[in-house]
Amino acid sequence: MTNTDGNQSLKILALIKFVPDPNQLKVSSNGRPDLGAAPFRISTFDENAIEAGLQLCSAHGGGVYGVSVVHGKAPPRDVLLRAMAMGLEKLYLVVDQDHVLNEPYRLAAALASASRFICSEEKISKWDLLICGEASADQYNAQVGPRLATALDIPVIAYATRIEIRDSTIVADRALEDRSETLQASIPCVVTVGMEINQARIPTVLQVMGAGRKPIREVLLADLPGLDVESFNEGPSLSTLDVLAPVRARKNIIVEGNDIAAKAAELLAKLGADGEVKF
After folding, report:
1. Looking at the predicted structure, is the pLDDT value of residue 117 above 80?
2. What is the pTM of this model?
3. Nearest to 189 by CA among 215, 214, 153
4. Sign of the torsion angle spanned by Cα atoms 88, 93, 99, 102
5. Of 138, 144, 12, which is closest to residue 75 (Cα–Cα)?
6. What Rg do the C-alpha atoms of the chain give, in angstroms?
């Protein structure tokens, strides 16, 4: 981590998930979300994780690499280029063709193996920091970061709102419901962040176009060292049985009339009668 001039040069791995945009999800006639209708994007908190890593490298030198698990085919290239345009050195896509990594334990195990693989490929002795969003925008289970730290046997600081590097330690703040904490951990370390930590940069059109020259590499699960996919079937696992949107029936009540005051009074009366508004 230390350059010849005595300055710290960081090697950071950002864990990135590409998800259907939650703001553009629609519910199909069967009550299930129509994932095909929503464009892909970087999961919101992962954008903040990339930004936090880039800011640390701006202060200390070094670079941020990205890794993402994709189920089946990769997301559209313009979505990948947006991640590269933010400032990643290189992006590795771990391809899960058979949807084996369908729950947090398996995903964390694969990411741990992928982190070692990327170290070997990039001739990096070890990561100083592995950073990710506190939860993904689609599932929001907030398990992958801590499970990854367990798989790598390194410390974890979750829900960080500020990160600072001091020599060979990470100092981070986080806000809990009843108090604020300042934590310190030795590196390497896993840190998860949310939107409170920063405002993620928006790449310009020129930066996105220039990102096309940056390397994006696909890696199969079979190429990851030490990952025994067959053992996943022998241990405990979590399966999602179904995802349904809450039923919301519209009443289609229209308040008509020319007198605005009367219409307002009628509207308030109807809302009060239904218990929607309490006076």
Report:
1. yes
2. 0.83
3. 153
4. negative
5. 138
6. 23
